[in-house]
Amino acid sequence: xxxxxxxxxxxxxxxxxxxxxxxxxxxxxxxxxxxxxxxxxxxxxxxxxxxxxxxxxxxxxxxxxxxxxxxxxxxxxxxxxxxxxxxxxxxxxxxxxxxxxxxxxxxxxxxxxxxxxxxxxxxxxxxxxxxxxxxxxxxxxxxxxxxxxxxxxxxxxxxxxxxxxxxxxxxxxxxxxxxxxxxxxxxxxxxxxxxxxxxxxxxxxxxxxxxxxxxxxxxxxxxxxxxxxxxxxxxxxxxxxxxxxxxxxxxxxxxxxxxxxxxxxxxxxxxxxxxxxxxxxxxxxxxxxxxxxxxxxxxxxxxxxxxxxxxxxxxxxxxxxxxxxxxxxxxxxxxxxxxxxxxxxxxxxxxxxxxxxxxxxxxxxxxxxxxxxxxxxxxxxxxxxxxxxxxxxxxxxxxxxx
Amino acid sequence: xxxxxxxxxxxxxxxxxxxxxxxxxxxxxxxxxxxxxxxxxxxxxxxxxxxxxxxxxxxxxxxxxxxxxxxxxxxxxxxxxxxxxxxxxxxxxxxxxxxxxxxxxxxxxxxxxxxxxxxxxxxxxxxxxxxxxxxxxxxxxxxxxxxxxxxxxxxxxxxxxxxxxxxxxxxxxxxxxxxxxxxxxxxxxxxxxxxxxxxxxxxxxxxxxxxxxxxxxxxxxxxxxxxxxxxxxxxxxxxxxxxxxxxx
Lengths: 402, 248
Hints:
A: alpha+beta, 13 helices, B: alpha/beta, four-stranded antiparallel β-sheet
């Protein structure tokens, strides 16, 4: 207790230097907390974005990158059929929605405007699977799918190119290639998702693409949503098993389809941002160490400068351990107060970044504990050597020191 | 009766490169409680080494040192620190006050060490008492740089007194002071010696300062060359009253 009084008084005697030394620690701790907050914020933002794309989603693509030894792109095979989709809907438990998909590219013409885009054939449940709403007009119906009707719902980018960003194109006629389609509505803007621009496409019944545009009977993809997030893995596995059976694949043969869940994609993205967070923390950690070395430096200078003081303290009865404790407490006090102030600054920076710059920043308890723990550890570690040096001084020589 | 200090055949050698320096070459000395002993001699004569050993800041290479009957010549550093804290007071040529620290806090300093914990109110009371004893209670809040040299040395003496030591060691206490303030400091030491029966060991190379003691020993080449009582002892208070000094 006495030692703390002694140490505080000693620190109070040179306030400017004490303040500057703490500054190193303050900056280090603040940097760790705010940068990790930034990294965590980015991570949650990406997770939220992926979740927003429609949770519980499973995609089945025809073909596999290594199918039959020949490398093919996903969807570049005719291994999936409408019957496969019907089989999954019928036999796999836990499937909530399902949409067969087949796509092509085409030139879309409306009046004197034209735009080359993707024509995505799909089913009525796609908006539900992707959590994607119709901004104006309506989506096509099961009747449209059954009759392979020439109806289309525009992505917002396509609508902007053909009719204008805020226009409601419902009821207009467009042409895809030479065939006229009636526009039913326009989708809300969705942005990038699953590696493609969701807004730059036209949604039509998959039967229409098969029969009116391509003249094929297979499909490229099946998009499924599981009833709950917990079921996603089970549904994906059951789907794979069902498809292998339907396609007559024996053990040892590669899948002729590829199943991906949103979770996997989310995991990859999360890992990437996790790496970024670690990197940021590492950089900030360096400044913490620099702050610690600053403390050691100042404590060493202080020991030399106060040699006579140490000699005097020893002469009037201080033991080696009293002196060591005094300098150790001084170093720890520097680093703890510096760490505390750095914590406050770090919180303020994180708050400021999210409020004024709209950068997502989440202060992580771990980072705070780590930074503060490190600050305290730095005090002990970098304070010990100077303290030991002070404690080992010979009182006679210390008193004579000029 | 035990002597305040009793040393026998004290030897202290230092290794300086290839040479062995004998700073003390077998010194024996008894000092009674309440004596005022001046130690003189040229630099390098061994008087400082003797004071360091008597002050428990250093240990002899050979010989024994009994302080109030206790053998301190073989104690550990920590034990010596405790002895210094409990029995000894130091006054240095350079005052050695902590800068940017009030006179009161400086005087309190020795009470912060040692095993017997003293409450802060009691520390304050005793520090004020010690400052009063040296006539500086009104300067308790002043920092060393706001005090004259003589006042600083008196604060240092108050600091040496706060533990009620049995021995005060004063190492050239007047070395940095002019004649007038030197006499003030010597008057204070004489008074403490007389009223409190504190044994005073004074190191000085100035003979007129040494003559304020009751006994003078002089050192040369690590040995005591003379040991004599002071016949015509000086009293600082009388000297200060003499008119010619007021001019000087």
